[in-house]
Amino acid sequence: MLWFFWRYSSTRKNICPKSSLNDRKCQSEIAAGSTDVVIVGAGVVGSSLAYALGKDGRQVHVIERDLTEPDRIVGELLQPGGYLKLVDLGLEDCVNEIDAQRVFGYALYKDGKSSKLPYPLENFHPDVAGRSFHHGRFIRKLREKAASLPNVRLEQGTVTSLFEEKGIVKGVQYKSKDGQELTAFAPLTIVCDGCHSNLRRSLCNPKVKCEDNIRQFPNSAEVDVPSCFVGLVLENCELPFANHGHVILADPSPILFYPISSTEIRCLVDVPGQKVPSISTGEMANYLRTKVAPQIPPELYTAFLASIEKGSIKAMPNRSMPGAPYPTPGALLMGDAFNMRHPLTGGGMTVALSDVLVLRNLLRPLQNLNSASDLCRYLESFYTLRMVRMHPNPILITL
Length: 399
Known about the structure:
- Its EC number is 1.14.14.17.
- One of its GO terms (molecular function) is flavin adenine dinucleotide binding.
- The protein is α/β, with parallel strands linked by helices and 399 residues long.
- The chain contains nine helices and 20 strands.
- The protein has helices spanning 2-10, 44-55, 80-89, 135-147, 200-203, 283-292, 298-310, 348-363, 372-388; strands spanning 15-17, 37-40, 60-64, 77-78, 101-103, 105-110, 113-118, 130-132, 152-165, 168-176, 181-185, 188-191, 207-209, 214-215, 222-235, 245-248, 255-259, 264-272, 314-320, 331-333.
- The strands form three sheets. Strands 6, 7, 13, 14, 15, 16, 17, 18 and 19 form a nine-stranded mixed sheet that branches. Strands 1, 2, 3, 9, 10, 11, 12 and 20 form an eight-stranded mixed sheet that branches. The protein has a three-stranded antiparallel sheet with strand order 4-8-5.
- Strand 9 and strand 10 form a beta hairpin.
- The protein is globular.
């Protein structure tokens, strides 16, 4: 514990002290006391947390860098445990009207043989199943749900630093969409601005592990990038096992298929290392044709080649990072900014929603978040309580 407080006091970064903002007080967006919680980021965690806290009567201000509908190749498959968390949070309707597909388990392929592995859902309501969808559509629905509450304000802006006073985080400094430099105050600031978080090092010290460049900070979380996902969308075909994710244990690494709408199938090819074949030069297309295509199920082969020819190939690094924050009065780190697992687990959104539920329940007894000592004690419990709810297999989290 002493180490935590030493680390907290000696490694503050991206935190703007009060004195440096005195000349901008007239531009401060909201006076302290009118907002209970500032949330940085409106992804899965930020949007669902804003709704959950707003439903509990909290005044919530969400600041998101880009409020346009995101277009990503991950965050598309929600495990059954994650759907149950949506139900607990009152957000289950966010998978409606986005052409989301039910997922009942996985099919595994190896050496030309296949096996179907259903989720253990026999004792649950028929609505309980996994869901797969376009990530952006799901995020749009979550944001709309949060913004529907009169006490939740959703704003586009770029948070540049945490705002600290006497060792306690009191809010954030940010630039609004029109370029104004503002400060948002609240007794609690939740940082959940994703895997590219620019505030992460204010609340923990990750080390980035790469093949060519290793930046290490002692006793810190490690951001590991072991491979990249290459994504395509297949059309005009059907999966061998309907409403199932498909995992091909291929050479040199797995290939995933799952539906993201009633007419589209997502393919994710895991490519080891960080130096993947170039998409722009056509090297990636050649790799997919010659190395990957011969290993996929025959039912998907033609559509796979057609998707390559269409040219809509995307790539992103796969990141994993254990959560290793240090106590920070007035602030909490959540989501991919705090903790990442390899996307192959398919458990990221389920873990995120579970964390939202833990925090909502933890804060409910606190009528007033302005008691810094009470709030700090409750927040220190969060990182312990969240582990109690974690299942060693992310697919089965809290089922």
